[in-house]
Amino acid sequence: MTTIQTTTPQRCETRYFGPVDYDESAILVFPDGIPAFEQETRFLALQQPVNKPLVFLQSLSNPGLCFATLPAQAACPGYQLNMSPEDLDAIGLGGGPQPAIGSEVLCLAILSLEENAPPTVNLLAPIVVNLHTLRGRQAIQADSPYSHREALPLRGAACS
Amino acid sequence: MRRRAGESILIGDDIEIQILHIGESRIKIGIVAPKSIPVTMKEMELVRQENLAAAQVRSVAALRGMLDKLIDGPAEITP
Questions:
Q1: Peptide bond into A9 cis (omega under 30)
Q2: Which of A24, A59, B29, B62 is the residue whose CA sits 20 to 30 A from A44?
Q3: What are A129's strand-pairing partners?
């Protein structure tokens, strides 16, 4: 029997990029999955220079599941979080103020693409990941000025 | 039906909606229901549907093509 070292690269199949090597320390953990995919609790955030600023959330247990996302502040400069106490608790930031995007949390808006329509981003419920613990959750924002389906590019007023 | 803070509504035998606190622009509600009945915000259903749709994106190229027109960005060109 062999013990897997945490530094040993693992390999997973991905929806868009073929096999990808990763380190276990890079796994994002979503204890409750995400809505409609509650069983999917472990994801990788994949980036390619050529596809900046896109970030792909690839499920580790389901190679066919990969979300294309944009950093919320790339989709909407000035975007700020307004998470519920329950959601903050779930990613280990309960009792604190709204976390700072970039330094405390990663904040990604899932992209959706329908034919003959501009792509949309879900700014109502971004994926928020605690950068210190890599615990994540899709968090419906309170009093959100944004919808779950904001067309890109966003109207200027929405982002001020 | 009108209710004040501290009062409740019963739905059937085993669901109770409690009006806990009434603020200026929002109210705090307590819900007592059997574990078999999921209780979620309505927005959660929108998010579920949107996630299902988002999981269907066919290819990165299609996405890239549309985004290039929309986002000022480091359009890094690969030879």
A1: no
A2: B62
A3: A106, A136
Query: Amino acid identity, residue B9?
Result: I
Rounded to two decimals, the pTM is: 0.84
Are residues B50 and A122, on separate chains, in Cβ contact within 8 Å? yes
| Interchain pair B71, A65: CB under 8 A | no
B36 touches chain A (CB under 8 A): no
Give the three-class secondary structure for B46.
helix
Above pLDDT 90, what percent of chain A?
70
Residue A103 · residue A131 · CB < 8 Å = yes
Residue A90 identity (one-letter amino acid): A
The pair of three-digit structure tokens given for residue A122, joined into one six-digit string: 């879900």
User: pLDDT tens-digit profile of A103-160?
Assistant: 999 999 999 988 777 889 999 999 999 999 999 999 999 888 999 999 886 655 456 5
- Cα–Cα distance measured from residue A70 to residue A39, given in angstroms and rounded to the nearest whole number: 23
User: Which of A65, A113, A114 should be substituted to probe chain B, the one whose Cβ sees the most B Cβ atoms within 10 Å?
Assistant: A113
